[in-house]
Amino acid sequence: MQVDNLNMVIDQISKDKSIDRKVLHEALEQAILTAAKKVFGYDRELEAVFNEELGQVELFQYMVVVEETFFEIFSQIVIFSQFYESQSF
Question: What predicted TM-score, i.e. pTM, was given to this entire model?
Answer without folding.
Answer: 0.66
